[in-house]
Amino acid sequence: MIGLENGGVEEIEVVVAHSERATLRVGDVFLKVDVDPRRTEVEVQAIALAPIPTPRVLWREPPVLAISAVPGTALGRLGEPSPASRAAWVAAGAAVRALHDAPLPPWPGPDVDALAACLDDECGRLLAGGVLPRDLITRNREVAQAAMRPWKPVFIHGDLQITHVFVEDDTVVGVIDWSEAAPGDALFDLATLTLGHEEHLDDVIAGYGADVDLDVIRGWWSWRSLIAVRWLVEHGFDPSLPGCELDVLRARM
What CATH number does the domain containing 240 carry? Predict the structure, then answer.
């Protein structure tokens, strides 16, 4: 925390900071600094297009984007029990369905071949660096293959962690951090939302209101965790905390 003597706010909160991005909270305003202007442009456009509650874009002065805080509280955090009710998780599933039913955003999305190549490359790095046990990598790489198939693209959030979904009175009142939004696989959003919170998958699916291939969901859980582990370690985060990425990978064994 950094105290301010002037400017009408009591403190600045560093929400997240690493070599690629930083987010600061100043009162009810979030200041997002990103080295990649493309991500900022995507966020601004996605917020304008999304048919669900989002923050307001207040101003943009590259590389800084200022957005409003959203009401409510986050659906939960990875590695901790969710404080949200079952009804809130159902509402989150319904909000995701509303997003996926919207017209596609007019920019390209992830390509399955590129994502498969990314998985192969990352597994090779994990094996070469001895970051994870070989059998853990091998098994989760096999599980992840279920997600490496063609899909009909929908408007996805692209980084729908539970910390990005805010609820109040069992209603979704805000979804934040839209820099990865694109046309993509609907099940990727559902898997990201329930990563580490498998006990709420049925609630999310109930709200989503469509049949879901559970093998693909598990595939995306493995894919996302394998891709994330090395990056998290290199940026000062701990994927080995209870309920986090390593536990997600171990659950597939």
Answer: 3.90.1200.10
Does 233 fall in a domain? yes
Residue 108 lies in a domain: yes
Contact (Cβ atoms closer than 8 angstroms) between residue 149 and residue 112: yes
Q: Residue 64 falls within a domain, yes or no?
A: no
**Is 49 contained in some domain?**
no
Q: What is the pTM of this model?
A: 0.93
Who wins on pLDDT, 238 or 4?
238
Whole-number Å distance between alpha carbons of 220 and 186 = 11
Q: How many domains does the chain have?
A: 1
**Residues 57, 47 contacting (CB under 8 angstroms):** yes
- Summarised one tens digit per residue, pLDDT across range 79-124 is 999 999 999 999 999 999 999 999 999 999 999 999 999 999 999 9
Q: Which two tokens stand for residue 187?
A: 């099940």
Range of the domain at 240: 70-250
Pairwise CA distance, residues 249 & 128, whole Å: 18
